[in-house]
Each structure stands twice: as C-alpha cells, then as structure tokens.
C-alpha cells in the first residue's frame, strides 16, 4: 500500500512560513551538500523548472509519483507563470476556488482525504504532500510519514506545520541526517 509523506521545510521553532505563508527564504539553505542529498534521495521533490537548469530532469522518481498541493502552495508557482510545477508526477491541487490552467494539474474540490485513501490503494510510488498547513491539517489522519527538513532559523511566529487543533499523535524516528549548513532532515513514521 502506498503512503502519504508530508515532506516539509520548517524553522527550528516549527513554522513552514512567515505569518503570510511565505517560505521562500528557506531556499538559502539549499547549498551544494543539501542539493546533492535532494538529488540522490528525493529528486522528484525538486520542481520541474528547477530540475531542468540543474540538468537532472532525466532522473527517475525514487519515492513519489504523485504530489498533492494546497491552493496557496500551487499559487506560488502560478505567480511566476508556472502552471505545471511537478510535470514529472501526477499533480493534484486541493482547492474549492481554483480552476486548472493546465491539463496536467487536477483540481480536487471534494473530499481530499477520501481521495488520498483511494490513491493509497493504487499501485505505484508514494504520495508527496507538498503543503501547506491547512491541507496538512485536513489530511492529518492520512499522513503516514513526516520528512522534516529543519533549517537553522527561528521565525518567532508564522504558519505552523499543521493548522489543526490539539491532538497528541506519536511518530517513530526512522532516520536523522545533519548537514554542514546546520540543516537537519528527520524522517518519522506514524505509530499505528
């Protein structure tokens, strides 16, 4: 059975973006060492417009073949004129207000959790939950794995990883990797 993995960049204090949701400042920590890790372990998480200039558009997907984004996350790509940010994967965008400007992007306006349960029963690689906080909260019970890229930065306030109510949920640490720039990537699996 496929799993849903929330692959997310966060500050030390657990925010995925500033109070407006902006998180582009995390990219300054993607140095040569960190980029090599992403290319080796998670090449499909690099958006298509970034893969092409890096000369890695030919790399096969290793872990994910489907990406799910929230409306605001997808709008980051739209704002720079990119209508198919993950052309190398099946692309789903959870939104009740958008219409797809690209035939390669499927807008899901209904029950996204039910759709994820259906996707999990299909054959294939995993499902990459790209963001953001509201979508992660909506899919909280479906998240099987967390891949938390923690960058050495304190925001003080902002958009949390999950925009949800208080709910203690245990995850088991599966791996921990540190980088010379101070970043840490931890992988957790949900305890069932």
Automatic annotation (TrEMBL):
All copies of domain Bacterial bifunctional deaminase-reductase C-terminal, residue ranges: 3-184
Pfam families given in the database record: RibD_C
Taxonomic superkingdom: Bacteria
Annotated protein name in UniProt: Dihydrofolate reductase family protein
Organism: Streptomyces niveus
